[in-house]
Amino acid sequence: MAEEKENEEVYVGSIDQGTSSTRFVIYDREANPIASHQVEFTQFYPEAGWVEQDPMEILESVKMCTAKALDKATADGYNVDRGLKAIGIANQRETTVVWSKSSGLPLHNAIVWMDARTSSVCRLIFWVVQL
What we know:
Elements: H1 2-7, E1 11-17, E2 21-27, E3 33-40, E4 52-53, H2 55-75, H3 80-83, E5 84-90, E6 110-111, H4 119-130
Parallel strand pairs: 1-5
Antiparallel strand pairs: 1-2, 2-3, 4-6
Keywords: Kinase, Transferase
GO molecular function: glycerol kinase activity
Pfam families: FGGY_N
């Protein structure tokens, strides 16, 4: 039984959803990358200092990267359908999206972490905290 577990194909996936692209990497049990796919997505600059992204485009980029990497691994002979045991996620952290509870759709584009439209509010809060 222990030898059977030792020979079991085990893979871990990693979604890296960054500021300008999404990447999905699949690793084997020795942490060797066996397949990956990456796509860039659009940045919008509606006004000076504002940075936005389409949340649905981000979601689609994750789906596409995942599917393409799984296809590559399978084509290379890896049994990821049975062996993929976990997926980790790294995201943009401070980028913000508000979703509709009733529709499940975003109410607006994502406000990206480097967007400066609230910098005056942040300065005010910092000033008040310093009092």
